[in-house]
Amino acid sequence: MIEWLTTTDHKKIGIMYVVSTLSFFVIAGVLAALIRAQLAVPGNTLLGPHAYNQVFTLHGTAMIFLVIAPFGIGLANYLVPLQIGAPDVAFPRLNATGLWLFVLGGITVFAGLATYGGAAATGWTAYAPINEFFVGTGAGQDLFFIGLLMTSISTILTSINLLVTVFLFRAPGMTMWRIPIFTWEIVATAVLIIMAFPSLAAAFAMALIERHLGGHFFDAAYGGNPILYQHLFWFFGHPEVYVLILPYFGIVTEIIATFSRKPVFGYVGMVIAAFAIAALSLGVWAHHMFTTGAVSNPFFSAVSFLIAVPTGVKFVNWIGTMWKGSIALQVPMLFAIGFLLNFLIGGITGVMIASPPIDYQAHDSYFIVQHFHYTIGGGSMFALFGALYFWFPKMFGVKLEEGIGRWVFALLFLGFNATFIPMGFMGMEGMARRVYTYPAVGHLPLLNAVASAGALIMTLGVALFFIDVLVSIRRRAPVEDDPWGGYSLEWMTTSPPPEFNFKTLPAIRSRRPAIDSRPGSV
Ligand code: HEM
Ligand SMILES: [Cu+2]
Fold it and tell me: Given pLDDT bands bounded at 50, 70 and 90, which one contains residue 135?
């Protein structure tokens, strides 16, 4: 126990990221179930308005800041040194600091529940001026800002650490053009984090100064401007959505190449596309502000459309990698294919709302809720489960049961689509997001009932995943070092790897060192 609390080993830290993000995932999932229970029927009174506001705020905040983003970073902690043949990250103590700041930051946000007035209730965006004047924004709102400032500092520190590791700690022969795509995506993500998170930290610090030290940055009555908050928030917020997806692009790339038994198709294009997405994503923030009338809609619309180009390149590469491969439909691959199908819907709805005339209709409606759940839920979350099934044997020396895993995938895929397809139609019928109830008009009762039923199916899927973990750990079937026939370096060491990762390193002569050194290869 003490050993884990004080460790600086990147693998233990990576595993603790996985465990803590999965714990936050369970809590955020329970909150999602509460949301769907409240909205299952019109006029429901299970949760009152203030309770509902806290529930959706904590759900979104936790999923974004405490689950999807840090799982990607945590997995990078585990994998990047292994993939580049390094014994650890560049600054192991800084790494441990990052982990514990993250965990404490997350607990700080939830600690708001124990305060008078409850937790933050302003949505994950915490816009001005409601972050100051809204009923119930007491200490819970302060804890939200402080907790997220802690997690922001944590991510920035870890990003610097990972960048230095990739640039300076690669094994002999592991040139930059040979590092696996997952590691490349982490490089792009880390650069984005370093560019974008200071803006969030500034916005939150300014909000705290307004709340407690008499500042008036956002307060129009004193010459401030609430739109300034939106600029600072979204200058972070849009890059953040790519922080939520780039690591998962990396995960599906590794899975698709492994289970198609082929090298990544268009490796260089894949890398350039990642950086093109990262660069463009710094110039589209105001597509979240089309309806404010305070930004250049044509400019931000045009740049948003452009993002579809490098994203399309990636889709071509994934399909090209599968093309004529001998595809093995094992559980990680099922999740990767689920990712492709779901994320496609998220991408296409994104391009739709990047058009201001459409966004004027869709903004703040359930159409938006559908869009971003198809990207983060159907995309990132499916890749997250794919990653768990793929790297679990490496991390723990135990393979998860395939038979149960197939059911987990089926339930999640069915449940996810049943929950979120109806939301697009709710949005088109005018249902606003972030309201605790809705009238029984049009198809809203039917659509909401279907969505809530879908959420129940997803809950079963997640529960079955944890059952799979328990069953597999109890069974402890012996696992090889390389159960899938992977191509990157992590498959060349034991499962789990020894301290400092490798007893000996093979000669690295290509992008697929594990395949080169397999008997029979030249
Ligand atoms: C082709 C790519 C994409 C485009 C053009 C796009 C466009 C947009 C636009 C215009 C909005 C604002 C809608 C509104 O509030 O009226 C939006 C919202 C959002 N998008 Fe995307 N998007 C894309 C990809 C993504 C990806 C990859 C993610 C996450 C992984 C994502 C996550 C979100 C989130 C979380 C919101 C809602 C923010 C909020 O108001 O709380 N989007 N998107
Ligand atoms: Cu955006």
Answer: low
Residue pair 133/171 in contact by the 8 Å Cβ criterion: no
Å from CA of 453 to ligand 2 middle: 29
How distant is the alpha carbon of residue 411 from its chain centre?
20
Of all protein residues, the one whose alpha carbon is nearest to atom 10 of ligand 1 is 354
| Ligand 2 centroid – CA 238 distance (Å) | 4
Under DSSP, the state recorded for 119 is B
Q: Check whether 450 has a pLDDT greater than 80.
A: yes
CB-count exposure of residue 326 (10 Å: 0-12, 13-18, 19+): exposed
Q: Is the CB of 257 under 6 A from ligand 1?
A: no
Residues 6+ apart with CB under 8 A from 348: none
**Quick check: 406 and 448 in contact, CB under 8 A?**
no
Q: Is the C-beta atom of 368 inside 6 A of ligand 1?
A: yes
Pairwise CA distance, residues 276 & 309, whole Å? 9
351 Cβ below 6 A of ligand 1: yes
Mutate which of 71, 288, 313, 382 for ligand 1? The one with the most ligand atoms within 8 Å of its CB, which is: 288
- Indicate which ligand has the atom closest to the C-alpha of 236: 2
DSSP 8-state class, residue 399: P
Identify the pLDDT of residue 360.
Answer: 97
Q: Residues 6 or more apart from 411 whose CB is under 8 A from it?
A: 457, 458, 460, 461, 464
Which atom from ligand 1 is nearest to the alpha carbon of 244?
30
Q: Which two tokens stand for residue 138?
A: 């007491």
Could you write out the DSSP letters of every residue in 238-273?
Answer: HHHHHHTTHHHHHHHHHHHHHHHTSPPTTHHHHHHH
Pick the range with the lowest mean pLDDT from 206-215, 261-270, 465-474. Answer: 206-215
For the ranges 208-217, 444-453, 510-519, which has the lowest average pLDDT? Answer: 510-519
CA–CA separation, 109 vs 147, rounded Å?
5
Q: Give me the pLDDT at residue 131, please.
A: 78
pLDDT at 173: 95
Is the Cβ–Cβ distance between 126 and 207 less than 8 Å?
yes
Average pLDDT over residues 188-211: 96
473: Cα separation from own chain's centroid: 26
The pLDDT > 90 percentage for the chain reads 93
User: Tokens 């490349």 sit at which residue?
Assistant: 184
Question: 411-425: per-residue pLDDT in tens?
Answer: 999 999 999 999 999
Distance CA 304, CA 231 (A): 16
Averaged confidence pLDDT in the chain: 96
Radius of gyration of the chain measured on its C-alpha atoms: 23
Q: Say how far apart CA 474 and CA 416 lie, in whole Å.
A: 29
70-81: average pLDDT: 98
Grouping H, G, I as helix, E, B as strand and the rest as coil, residue 432 is strand
Helix%, strand%, coil% for the chain, nearest 5 = 70, 0, 30
360 in Cβ contact with 354 (< 8 Å): no
Read off the pLDDT band of 522 (50, 70, 90): very low
